[in-house]
Amino acid sequence: MYKEKIDRFIDAHRNELLEDIRTLCAIDSARGAEKEGMPYGRGCAQALREALHLGECYGFTVKNYENYVGTIDLNDKESQLDILAHLDVVPGGDGWSVTKPFKPLVKDGKIYGRGTADDKGPAVAALYAMRAVKELGIPLKKNVRLILGTDEECESGDIAYYYSKEKEAPMTFSPDAQYPVINLEKGLFQCEFSAEFSESSALPRLVTFESGTKINVVPAKARAAFEGLSAEECGVLAHSMEAELGVRFEVTKEKDLVKIEAFGENGHASTPWKGKNALTALLALTAKLPLAECEQLEKVRALNRLLPHGDWYGNALGISMEDTLSGPLTAAFSMLSIDKGVLKGAFDSRCPLCAGEENTVQAVKRTMEEYGVHVHTDSMIPPHHVPGDSAFVKTLLRVYERYTGKKGECLSLGGLTYVHELKNGVAFGASMPGTENHMHGPDEFAVIEELLTSAKMFAQVILELCG
User: Pairing mode, if any, of strands 217-218 and 425-427?
Assistant: First the structure.
């Protein structure tokens, strides 16, 4: 009944929608140091204030929950549907070629910039869906609330704070993934480990090793310093391994130290094969260098065996598994530091429905302990599943099919969205099947037509669930 009106509204407000996305994506809202009244730093708080200001400008009721979360309500009726998005982003990173991370740019039917796809662009699409319903005067019986968080990329403490004060809506979707509907999310095992060893002065030796910025990001850079090695010989070995490992090495000499840097490509830990892991590549190189035997070198070789370059499924750890609904377990070695007799590291594993603490957490502990590596993580977040035959999921699939002409089906996701802990929460959009939007990597983008279609679909979902 209202489809044509909604479509015309969204198309007519295309430029405004893009401008609002540009406004939000120009803000570096990667989590920063806590400040008074800003639990996740100045950038996150600024992005939240700006988004709530947009909501106020469009006539909605807004509320700021102490800069943890903000909400935008369509009306004051009984709660029915929450749309759960986030305004924080991963760090901008290097390797961008189309634009700078926080200088959003519209080009060739796409909008580039950190957050355009994950998740500021989809959040604005949801806001414009609400605008369409409100400004077209479409009557509703119940309320839809847009919830805007600021800590999704780290610990999701913002949402824990919000739900300590508010009840979960009967239905929730998050536009923070892809279409058609993701009703199953893998579990999460983010394993932190360490080892100690006696320092050795025997040469040649590894002095320091450092890689990784966040546990859920495949690292694009790694660096190590060595004493007692020939820079020329290191360079020959490093360059001979570049094609095999898919990364680039730089070898330099600085006083008595040989420094080696590895340059790969960032990626999301849930899809580690899409990145180029500089950490595991440099670890593989280090294990082949002619270093003097010592406890430190034993630990380096152990890690190279347990989490080798290109092993995305936990085979060497002994936790490879999969099931029909959720697919295989994945593992991404994402953080490592070695210095002064101490090794600290972490990997991120996304676990299918068949995974539990015994065959995942405890299995890793037993395996790593055999090599003298101590695991400090005792638990995992279990998988999340909403039945595909529920009325809620069927509505989302029906709307998707109507707007795209493609078959709607339920999917499994390796990444965790905000709805993971919600009883009746799923991910719905906002990228279409086959779109590779470089989420968490350089040159992140959203396809403009996909954002516009998402806004239209979100509006239709609001009508069907709240009208």
Answer: unpaired
